[in-house]
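WARN  no MSA supplied for this record, continuing single-sequence
INFO  ligand: zinc ion
INFO  echoing inputs
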Amino acid sequence: MIDTFTAPGRFWRGNLHSHSDRSDGALPPEEVCRRYAAEGYDFLALTDHFLGRYGYPITDTAPFRTERFTTLPGAELHSGALENGELWHILAVGLPAGFAPSHSPDFTPVAGQETGPEIAARAVAAGAFVAIAHPHWSGLSLADARSLTAAHAIEIYNHGCAIGADRGNGAAITDLLLSEGRRVTLIATDDSHFTEPDHFGGWVMVKAPENTPEALLAALKAGHFYASQGPELHAIRFDGAALEVESSAVVSVIVQGRASAVVARHGASMTRTRILLAAGLAASPWLRVTVVDAAGRRAWSNPLWRDGADGAGFIAR
Ligand SMILES: [Zn+2]
Ligand SMILES: [Zn+2]
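INFO  complex generated
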């Protein structure tokens, strides 16, 4: 099967969600890029708030690319109200510079603006990789999440929201979406503003032939990546009865499925872990893998979907 681990190329580490002083971040774009490159990242998407109060920025980071560090254009889009009355936050990576401004003057919804689902669909049509940002922090309802049908991904972890609000984890609503059959992928991000310790805590590892914006964007849309706070995933294989997970040294490997279905293995410095799918997991239409290292840092695989053709395998999407 062609999945994250068998796709051609190598892994590139990047942060998909960050802010500069072009919106409400503390640092100029050049310094944000310099810090991520200095920390060993291969790429960064600067995603300033796409609001009238900031002049609808799609911050140009192309001048800060080097031979070993690249950038993807992007923005955090805002338009329309959630069920709780607050404004949508939608991550758009690979957004072209000519993307037309929305009618979004500030951080509160106004009459006559596009809905969240409408602006998300417009971003996807323009070529962007689109994600539901920080669902817990936003107070997103399941109906809200369900309505953003254009989104490729959801933030399973947002480091800024973890540090600043203890609302960084998007796993609960993610699992509900998966259980409805929604083929969404899972990203971890920083949402860094550099106004608090909100940086270098969550990233994606993207498998692509080269470290270029085009190759990274294609791999993101294809789901060829995993999300991490530190641990590495090297392979996930399904042999018909069990999942075998190869990783950097971890203390827990957990396979989750629909409803309460889960199996966990705990140990010391585990790098190759075989997990037999027990009854609940064997019947689940999807599985995903979480590993935890000795420092409590996690990595999350994208969902694996049961192959509808023969019901005997799982395919990664
Ligand atoms: Zn946001
Ligand atoms: Zn943000």
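The pocket of zinc ion (ligand 1) is lined by residues 76, 89, 133-134 (CB under 6 Å).
INFO  checksum written, moving to next record
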